[in-house]
Structures
1.
Amino acid sequence: MLRIFSASTQELSNVEAYYWALATKLQWNYFDHPPIVAWLIRITTLNMALHNEVFVRLGAILSSAVCTWLMFRIGSALYNARAGWFAALFYATSIYSGMSIAAFILPDSPQMVFWLASIFTLIKIVRRNPAEPQFGRQWLLFGLFAGLSVMCKVHGILLWTGAAMYLLFYNRAALKNKYIFMAMGITLIIVSPMIIWNIQHDFITYRFHSSRVNIAGPPIDVSRFLKQFSAIVFSTGPIHFVLICAGVYAAIRGKLIAGKNELRMLLMCSLPLIIIVWLISLFNEVLPHWPGPAFSTLLLLPAVQLAARVENSKKGMHGVLKFSVAYLVLIVILGVLSVNYFPGTLSTEKQGMKTGADDGTLDMYGWKQAGMKFDSLRRMDVAMKAMPAQAPIVIADWITAAHIDYYIGEPAGVETWGLGDAYSLHQYYWMNAYKRPLLKGESAYLVIPSNLFSFKNFNRVTGEFSDYNFALIFPGYRSGVICKEYYVVRLYGYTGTLAR
């Protein structure tokens, strides 16, 4: 209920709206990510028929329910049902797994299903003798789940890295088993459409992501690392982070009452992702949810540790779990209140062209207001012949494009048209091919929220038209106080130099 409450009371974030936009035209791969998140949105919105935030996010809510059940099953397999119960509660109360990807749709949302299914399968594998028939079948199943994980987000390949490291260090004899290589083949077949798409597009996905994780050129920035480390701790949950550290320490020291091989596999599949992200964060900006799958997996360790500690206790829920639940509820309530009801803006920019700049709470607020205002203006413009009915909304970057698409363009029946390169527009760079072309001499609209105002984008777009004027400037209010402004610009006489 907490997730449904959060999902239904906040507008889509820019990335969620962007994933919705991807779902409008299904592909085997997209500029930023593999396709499963878009496929999932297409399903939960009933082929895009249900235009509501809850249905866009429904895949995340359902995926989280499956993941919670998987955590219970894995925890039970590692130790006992109590450990499974604790693992499920730890997972459900983590900020990342219990809210960030559970109430809001991200590629991580479906990926965690396949990630945990892969982990569960590997746990079963390490308990079997290579001579058993089930050994080979489990490897084939792992190949399937790992491939689907990669088709959600490319770092799913680290599941294979962890499995390979375990085999090399602890079970080299199993490398002779043909089913392992057959499993690799299954994964490769599943991800092949993504690979083919990138071959056809000059590996642009990997060139884009490699530019985000470059560690060769930039100098080490300690202050940025500490800031990002803190964000990762918050995303995991401070309580959960401390418990994970204690659990990893106990596992390495051999203090956990669980199978040695199972613990080794958990660590092999989790620690590489965490180490890689922290290494990258020394040189580049990272997002706090990047190591989320690894930290979520490691929640199994404190679950086993706690279950062993309260083996003979009759308490249903330990105090630390109660505190975790209370902490999550507090964060959700504060989040909803700050997004929907904080008076005005948290930004230092209280007026002018950049009102609300750098206020993250405005990402999910005010777009419905803007959509109604734009629709009224457009209807009046068309009636007075100030603008043609087919005039699109021009977009210059994906960050504002998706919100404009979902909250302004779609309700008004107006298409968006991208001007710029792939690194600015992301998948929108290719979406023009499926739309009516913007021809030379035609008119269009430009919609800009002040909190995301960019003179560079404004000048780039207006420079492609012979004339323009500000059709409407209107404020967005939150709790009766202006939090940002919207600028609607009429563009006349497109020159056509940046069209695709």
Note: The beta strands are 393-395, 416-418, 444-449, 465-478, 481-494.
2.
Amino acid sequence: MAKIQMKTPLVEMDGDEMTRVVWEKIKDILILPYIDLKSEYYDLGLPNRDATEDQVTKDSAEATKKYGVAVKCATITPNAQRVEEFGLKKMWKSPNGTIRSMLDGTVFRAPILVKGISPLVKGWEAPIVIARHAYGDIYSAVDTKVEKGSKAELVITKPDGTETRTLIKDFAGSDGISCGMHNTDASIESFARACFEYALSEKLSLWFSSKDTISKIYDHRFKDVFNDIYEAEYKEKFEALGIEYFYTLIDDAIARVMKSKGGFVWACKNYDGDVFSDMLATAFGSLAMMTSVLVSPNGYFEYEAAHGTIPRHYHKYLKGEKTSTNPIATIFAWTGAFKKRGELDNLPELVTYGEKIEQAVLDTVGSGYMTGDLALISDLPEKHVLGLEEFLNKVAERYGEL
């Protein structure tokens, strides 16, 4: 069987720990036998990020701008413990945060629904798609320790050189910490339009939530931008499709989500989207069952798994022990990238390949063959727990039958 020939490379961003192992095995078993893979490879493993002063992360983002489609493995965002573990030069920023800031856009995360895995929230009947703003806020923040007796101020220097100063806190009685973060109207507008366009394309209602009652300028700006764009550009389109847009406070949104039937897009600011996408992934089945794609207003697409690097499995793997690591979200990152590459390059066979691999995954799990994490929550009467390679080979076998 001749391999599918690609026209334009994908940007391939390798990662860390167990997901790096999963990455290689997916390529060996599900990709390279069927596709003449063309990729521009970047090693975003933590040791290489440290060795290159994190330049490799920036280079991978620039390559995504060049080629338009990227696929990314999960990576470590180091804390103090990781700095010591890896002997790092410094506590490097989140590679996802760096890439998202350079590409702008919105991260859409949707659960992968499969036969035999029922949502923990019994009322959910359809997927809830998280739309996460992928720029600014705490991910691009500047923070610092503050010595007792100091004052922290927010200083804005205007174009004419004049300054305005706002007292954040007088640390007269104690040492402390302070943080400064930002966003831009341009990025918020791109976020809003991406959400409205996605909702229209999927014919889903759109919710947006923040905390404007407390953050009366920062969060209120998000609320106003969404409302103004909706009223001026999308209201009639939404009404024609019978879908709605509404804003509510983040705490009210939580209550509504838990009582809903699903089947809508939930737009969140950067941190909220980070947290609630993991919550939804787990509630719908597993963190390893959540797709994630960064959609830039400039036409760039970056696909990744929504979960982390699975260090517990990695330590078992290093000891030579068998792991039953769930590779599904990483498989869907690759297939999403291949389908988009095929769409942009007018290669229908590449799109079909991606669709068939995804169907093979769903068929494999739906027929009772799955990794250990899914076996624990599956309500199928007969289940067979497979190791990582066994599962990938089973998917390949099913793909060959489609």
Note: The longest strand covers residues 163-171.
3.
Amino acid sequence: MVLIAENLHIISKTTKEAILNKDDEYIINIVKKAFQNGLRVFDLNIGPAKGPLVGSMEYLTNLLNKNFDVDFSFDTSNFAEMRTGVSLLSSKKAEKSFLNSVCADVEKMNTGFEIAGEFGANVIALAFDPAKGIAKTSDERLELSFNIFENAASFGILENKVYFDPLVLPLSVAQEQANVVLETIRMLKEGMGEVQTIVGLSNISNGSPKEIRPLLNRVFLVLAMGAGLDSAIVDGFDVETVRVYKMIRDEIAGNNAAELSSLDSLYFSLYNAVNCFDDIDEIKYDKSNKDELSIIKAARVLLNKEIYSHSFFV
């Protein structure tokens, strides 16, 4: 599984200004913090890259390449900027990079797949048709993914180079959609050969109080891993979420030498419950332990077993 750091994005006004002003020190410090937390792939999110942001992908790619041994996700709707970024890499790094993203819009698909085919890059494909809006059901998302995949194949893109994003919506806005995303991940893994799956993890907690956002992100990642998730764009500064991911990864591989703590055992039980189609209500935990209770509350809300409210976690 691949974790991609989300922290270089123009949504942050301060980061946008740093990119515009070519503030090397600021940007290097962001990357260094996530790098020290074990992240080795960085999402360069420059949005539509219009006006003064034109040329930003070249600047960021060269700066990171000069100072770190990392891989890249080129996140922009400006395909000229996307192509510039991947063209600056060695052939080996280009093949490991991600083009973020294409959708069911034919023109955008064709352009993105042309670039991916030229450089051998991975493609993040959104299960989204701009003409119809965000699909509400897992079946609709799966149908969109099939259509996109057929187009990818026509450009010679291999199955395992396409990463489908079923589109995570904020829990506080569309609670039922968290479970739909998990269902979509499972259906994609079961029905589409070697295609990969990816989510923008922090989207699940957008609009939630900042003190509970890491918990929601972390528990959703565990549940999504159980459903078969292959990659996630995450907060590279979130030490605990990255640690839990590594714990589950190592537990699956049988590489954890020490006995798991009670919290880690609970996380792994949630992973197993989703993976084995079990009911999380059968999981035993210490109800007097505040942290364990919070994890279970988050899981129940994410699986639509409890109605979400900010106060539910107080």
Note: The two ends are 33 Å apart (CA to CA).
